[in-house]
Amino acid sequence: MRHDIKIKYYPIVIFFVILSFVFVVIHLEYKKYAWYYISAYCACKECCEGYADGITASGYVLTETSKVCAAPKNIPFGTRFDIPHYGIATVEDRGKAITGDRLDIYFSDHDKAIEWGVKKLHVKRLN
Ligand SMILES: [Zn+2]
After folding, report:
1. Which long-range contacts (CB under 8 A, 24 or more apart) does 26-34 make?
2. pLDDT (tens digit, 0 to 9) for every residue of the chain, 127 residues total?
3. Which of 11, 52, 59, 61 has the highest count of CB atoms within 10 angstroms of its CB?
4. CA nearest neighbour of 126 among 56, 85, 86, 78
5. Cα(50) to centroid of ligand 1, in Å?
6. Which fold has domain 34-125?
7. Which residues fall within 8 angstroms of residue 8, CB to CB, at 6 or more apart?
8. What pLDDT, on a 0 to 100 scale, did the predictor assign at position 2?
9. How far apart, in whole angstroms, are the C-alpha atoms of residue 124 and residue 87?
């Protein structure tokens, strides 16, 4: 008789197993997102103070088309973020003021960096 009960509840068990799996997937996907304050900089003396040599903290040489950002020290070089209105930025730089929930994105043009200002955005970490 106990065997019959098991068979009866089998679909319900399967349903809840699938449901928890779906929740795990949603949770893992949602975990990739975080709110960041995104500021912008270029390679000029004004933006970089003493380090305006066009080379990032990781040794990356900046070009006009570079999509890179500075991130806090707990985020390793090579980490990629999908930043709305900017694109996919790779962490190649550090900055004194870049701590906590801040990222600093690179523009080849100083005016574009100023125009960006600081935006609070929901950012997806890709790796
Ligand atoms: Zn600048």
Report:
1. 32/124, 32/125, 32/126, 33/122, 33/123, 33/124, 33/125, 34/101, 34/122, 34/123, 34/125
2. 556 667 788 899 999 999 999 999 999 999 999 999 999 999 999 998 777 789 999 999 999 999 999 999 999 999 999 999 999 999 999 998 899 999 999 999 999 999 999 999 999 999 9
3. 52
4. 78
5. 12
6. Barwin-like endoglucanases (2.40.40)
7. none
8. 58
9. 11
Distance 52 CA to ligand 1 centre (A): 9
Whole-number pLDDT of residue 75: 96
Closest CA to 88 of 115, 66, 116: 66
pTM of the model: 0.83
Q: How far is the CA of 66 from the centre of ligand 1 (A)?
A: 15
Length of the chain measured in residues: 127
Model pLDDT, residue 3:
62
Interatomic CA distance for residues 10 and 18, integer angstroms: 12
Distance 72 CA to ligand 1 centre (A): 20
Domain ranges of the chain: 1-31, 34-125
